[in-house]
Structure formats: structure tokens, C-alpha cells
Design goal:
By secondary structure, this protein is mainly α. It has a single domain, classed as Orthogonal Bundle (MetI-like fold). About 85% of the residues lie in helices and about 0% in strands. It has 8 helices and no strands. The protein is flat.
């Protein structure tokens, strides 16, 4: 067996383990929490009182206007100067959650705004409250439109988790860095890590296609019933 192939085979279990234990959980938790934060931020901007809307706009402005890597460094390396000490994984989780929350809030705000006002009027006309109209009428329609951009955000997040290596999270990319430090074979190991990220992204892209088709059928059923 060629040396490079043997090296890839030997390092594969360590890389997959790091991906399974750190990369995938960090991705899933950050996306779920970020999506919830994004929904709350979007609603605050669209329907909240002026002070709350201003806070939401400021949060989105700061997060979208600064690099993700800098945000991670501020949380992990900067906050200790204020007496706030965080382990690497929670710091990364907070950083990615805040980042995803800001970007997803813009997507959610746009898709909610795209729902025709007649849908609100129809919901109110049958006695729904604002909360019922939002949860039963507006959000289901907005979700169908939001699937493609949010799916792209999720796929990008999988790759962005490699930045967590900079704050010592032992995820997939840092596992590759550690093996490189002992084998002195950066090209082979980094290509292997890239291939694993490519595989994850490809699988998620296929799931995105299926999800979009399902929502498209759901949308067709809604239009037919209307």
C-alpha cells in the first residue's frame, strides 16, 4: 500500500471520531439554538416595540459586520479579562449560535414579510389570535420559502465549524492538525479532512433537495385546497 494511502487509512478513525463527537454536535446545537434566536430576533424586528426592535437591529448589525473568527476570539480569549471563563466547546457554541442567529433572522424576517397580508386577514377573520395566526398560518407558509436559504446556512455551518480549531475545540480540523504535528504530512492530512467535509456537505445537499421537494408538494396541496 502506498505511504500516503496508509497514512490516510491510519488517520481516518481519529478524524471521524472528532467529527462525530465534536463537529456534528457543534453544528446541530448551534443551528438549532441559532434558528430559535433568529426567529425571536426576526419577530422582534417585525412586531416588537421600538426599543426591542432597535436592540435586535444592533445585534444583527454587529454580528453580520464582524468576522466569525474574531467573534470566537472575543468570546474565548477576550471575555476572561472580564472574569468570564468559558471552556472551548461552550465558547464555540455561543459564537456559532450568535452568528447563525443573526444571519437566519434576516432570512426569517424576509420570508415572513413575503407572506401576503391577506393571510393575516383570513386568520383574524376566523377568530385566530396573533399567536395562532403566526404559528398556524404564517410560519408554515414562510417555512416553505425559507428551506433553501436555511439549508444553505446549515451546510455552510458544517464547514465553518473548522474555525473552532482556533480556540482549541478538538473537532475534525484540529484533529487533522494534531496528526500533522506528528507525521509532518500536511498535504495528505488536510486533503483527507477536506474530503470528509466534502462528503458531509454532499450528503446534506442531497437531503436539502429532498426536503425542498417535500415542501414543494406541501405548497402545491395548500394552493389546490385554496
Amino acid at each position: 500500500m502506498p505511504h500516503w494511502l496508509q497514512l490516510m487509512a491510519d488517520s481516518l478513525p481519529s478524524l471521524l471520531w472528532a467529527g462525530l463527537v465534536f463537529t456534528i454536535p457543534l453544528t446541530l446545537l448551534s443551528f438549532v439554538f441559532g434558528l430559535a434566536l433568529g426567529l425571536a430576533t426576526a419577530i422582534a424586528r417585525l412586531f416588537g416595540p421600538a426599543p426591542l426592535s432597535a436592540v435586535a437591529r444592533f445585534y444583527v448589525w454587529v454580528i453580520r459586520g464582524t468576522p466569525l473568527l474574531v467573534q470566537l476570539f472575543v468570546i474565548f480569549y477576550g471575555l476572561p479579562s472580564l472574569g468570564i471563563l468559558l471552556d472551548a466547546f461552550p465558547a464555540a457554541l455561543i459564537g456559532f449560535t450568535l452568528n447563525i442567529g443573526a444571519y437566519s433572522s434576516e432570512i426569517i424576517r424576509a420570508v415572513i414579510s413575503s407572506v401576503p397580508k391577506g393571510q393575516w386577514e383570513a386568520a383574524y377573520s376566523i377568530g385566530m389570535s396573533w399567536r395562532q395566526a403566526m404559528s398556524r398560518t404564517i410560519l408554515p407558509q414562510a417555512a416553505r420559502v425559507a428551506v433553501p436559504p436555511l439549508s444553505n446556512t446549515f451546510i455552510s455551518l458544517v464547514k465553518d465549524t473548522s474555525l473552532a480549531a482556533a480556540i482549541t475545540v478538538p473537532e475534525l480540523f484540529q484533529a487533522a492538525q494534531r496528526i500533522v504535528a506528528t507525521t509532518y504530512e500536511p498535504l495528505i492530512l488536510y486533503i483527507e479532512a477536506a474530503l470528509i467535509y466534502l462528503l458531509l456537505s454532499s450528503v446534506l445537499s442531497q437531503l436539502q433537495v429532498r426536503l425542498e421537494r417535500r415542501f414543494a408538494r406541501y405548497g402545491g396541496m395548500l394552493e389546490a385546497n385554496a
